[in-house]
Amino acid sequence: MDIVLQQLVNGLTLGSVYGLIAIGYTMVYGIIGMINFAHGDVYMVSAYITAIVVALLSYFGIESFPIIIVGTLFITIAITGAYGWAIEQIAYRPLRNSSRLAALISAIGMSLILQNYVQISQGARQQGIPNLLSGAVRFDIGDGFVQITYMKLIILLVAFISMGVLTYIIQKTKLGRMCRATQQDPKMASILGINTDRIISIVFVIGASMAAVAGVLITMDYGAFDFYVGFIIGIKAFTAAVLGGIGSLPGAMLGGLILGISESLFAGLISSDYKDVFSFSLLVIILIVRPSGLLGKPEVEKV
Amino acid sequence: MSHTIIKKSLLSIAVSGAIAVSSFAQAELVIGVAGPHTGAYAAFGEQLWRGAAKAAEDINSAGGVNGEMIKLIKADDACEPKQAVSIANRLVDSDGAVAVVGHFCSSSTIPASEIYADAGVLMVTPASTNPTVTDRGLENVFRVCGRDDQQGDVAASYIVGELGAKRVAILHDKDTYGKGLADATKKTLNSYGVEEVLYEGLTRGEKDFNAVITKIRSVDADVVYFGGLHSEAGPLVRQLREQGSTAIFISGDGIVSDEFVSVAGSPEYVDGVLMTFGADPTAYPAGKAVVEGFRANGWEPEGYTLYSYTAMQVIVEALKQNDLDPIKGAEWLKSNSVSTAMGVKDFDSKGDLQVSDYVMYEWDNKGKYAQVN
């Protein structure tokens, strides 16, 4: 019993991070119908920024953990958001009216550029940041126990707050209405006076910001990263986005949680060797049963 | 038109003349140094390069090899088999290497060694411990480190004899080296009558191992053996402690780098971690001056640095005794001893060391490791 609960906790934290990154994939797909393959590397960049900001803050003698995490979150979101904005300007905007394939190749190129740029400027070695917050809560259940580190609790808290704030922005604010309008019909939206180019830029910034939140949380939790760390997690988050229905915001969050929990349960109860095989089999099965994903809307052919 | 042809041919005569003169003035012996310089295992490539470069520098300043100066070519295989093959081809074809120090990862060494065998190039690996490296009967392949089956024996005997553990969980990274080491340890454990309670692979490059760690807790393991490298071992041991497990963590020579501590996040997590590695390479009386030479240059010869230095010495001795012929040199090594910075080395007919010297090390709460007595 305690083991299953512990696996659920593991899966929930992992899944909430997948969900945060999946948001970037799903929103960009929703608005311009393109898979942003550089998104995993945006996450990787945010891991490096996190380490640099943490080092700077400790250099200036700041040691209180709440200040460090809040400060790191704000600075990393700002810089990573700028990366997201710049990537859209440089790699995707000039190709807005070309075929989808051109934009896709541009995205793969951008991903390679980011990896190589970080590898050359920061070195290829494994990087680590020191442990900032130790300690854990422990619940005794029968003979066993469930142990959750404070950092994991913070991950869950921050991830769900971020998702909540984003959902509020998209559903309730004027900016969110403009985003949704652009997603539904870009031409009509621009006729109605929405600056769709600006909205697309904002969507990229939002996606990068969510990846930055994930980057800060994961880097502070695991402490280790390298220039290649965006690849695996990017693929997993993309899977989560497709699983939940690409283009759908709640779908990305749901997909992330399902993927994280099922991975943990499978690895924990059956075999960790075939964990990834299982995740992707799950994806295939769901796509067979529901081709547009769990919460995705079926594509309507516009005539 | 004919004018330009004459001009060109004159130019080419001049150029070839210049090349002939320069090669006459300074004969060079090209030796490749192959290892990972990019990617997660770049720290080990650095150790290999530092060791080989220092050896070449020392040999050149003592007059070179039969009058020829060693020229090193640094090659980066990123610990990827495909890239290892392509750089092996490059070293052999365009750089004209007669010998190679390398590679690091067994999964790179194995395919690359076949290219060296075809080209008649002598290869000495300072670090690849998988049994297959020498078990294929290639006559040009040698190593100055031990084998994973020897390493697994030492680890398993320690687990059973010293720790008296009954519940052992075995993990590996599914790579040639990691799985080979885990299998070797498992085999010896089983021969002592200890059945592992868990045997699983994890994915290289991932950082979240919480699921498999919870599983380790669920089988109530008191020892966790990991076959793999420090980039996975660091997060693994940290998450093990974070989930409240006090199981003893043991690994092999794949974690022997200071980066193990930084990747784990803090020295408190590596405290008490055990690993098998060759007896302190800096402690050989024969290598005292070499170790001091490294320290004078500001480089602590950690991990495989001295192994790489030794590999270079073995190559140079074999070439020196056999008129720079790498194939004859390989044959010669199998029946002669070489004195190196790590003592006198004797090879068997497969190219393995006749005596392996694995011992157990323990990491402390300062992030340093020391031999367990």
UniProtKB/TrEMBL annotation, chain A:
Keywords: Amino-acid transport, Cell inner membrane, Cell membrane, Membrane, Transmembrane, Transmembrane helix, Transport
Short name of any one Pfam family annotated for the protein: BPD_transp_2
Transferase keyword on record: no
InterPro entries per UniProt: ABC_transp_permease, BCAA_transport_permease
Record-annotated membrane-spanning stretches: 12-35, 42-61, 67-87, 150-170, 199-219, 225-246, 253-271, 277-296
Location in or out of the cell: Cell inner membrane
Record bears the keyword Ribosomal protein: no
Top-level taxon: Bacteria
Primary subcellular site in the record, as a coarse category: membrane
Coiled coil stretches, renumbered: none
Membrane topology: Multi-pass membrane protein
Family according to the record: Belongs to the binding-protein-dependent transport system permease family. LivHM subfamily.
Protein name per Swiss-Prot or TrEMBL: Branched-chain amino acid ABC transporter permease LivH
Organism: Marinomonas phaeophyticola
Automatic annotation (TrEMBL), chain B:
Protein's UniProt keywords contain Signal: yes
Location of the Leucine-binding protein domain: 30-368
Gene3D superfamilies assigned: 3.40.50.2300
Keywords: Amino-acid transport, Signal, Transport
Pfam families linked: Peripla_BP_6
Range of residues in the leader sequence: 1-27
Similarity comment: Belongs to the leucine-binding protein family.
Family annotation (PANTHER family): AMINO ACID BINDING PROTEIN, LEU/ILE/VAL-BINDING ABC TRANSPORTER SUBUNIT
Protein name: Branched-chain amino acid ABC transporter substrate-binding protein
Organism placement in taxonomy: Bacteria, Pseudomonadati, Pseudomonadota, Gammaproteobacteria, Oceanospirillales
